[in-house]
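Dear Dr. H.,

I hope your travels went smoothly. While you were away I took the liberty of generating a structure for the chain from your last submission, since the lab meeting agenda had it listed for discussion. I wanted you to have the full record in hand beforehand rather than looking at slides cold. The sequence, exactly as received, is reproduced here:
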Amino acid sequence: MTGNDSQSDEEAPKHLPLNEEEVTVLEGYLEQWKSTSGAEGNVVWEDATREAWVKAPAMKPESLRSQKNVYIKWLQNYGGKKKVKPPIDLGQKWTYRCDNHIGARHVYLHKP
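The corresponding predicted structure, in token form, is as follows:
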């Protein structure tokens, strides 16, 4: 078909993949990342970013700044799950019950 150029449809990747040196730097900060949260995690991320930038291949400053997002995503993906607060226990078990009353749906919570 005219006007349908398959090469123009394919977009270049927005971020370059991490090289081995960058991954090694991020792996060094991974344990610190796992043990921190909140503002402390931001400090670890900034330190890892500064050190990984030195190992990154030569690129435009705009691309280098956008590479920060790749670093934080890598840390989030390989950092594992953070501790989650336990769910609130109300002390009683409740069941979900729906009553159809004149076409309307009413939801009640009943003690068993």
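Two observations you may find useful: DSSP finds four helices and two strands in the chain. The helical segments are 6-9, 20-35, 39-55, 61-78.

With kind regards,
E. W.
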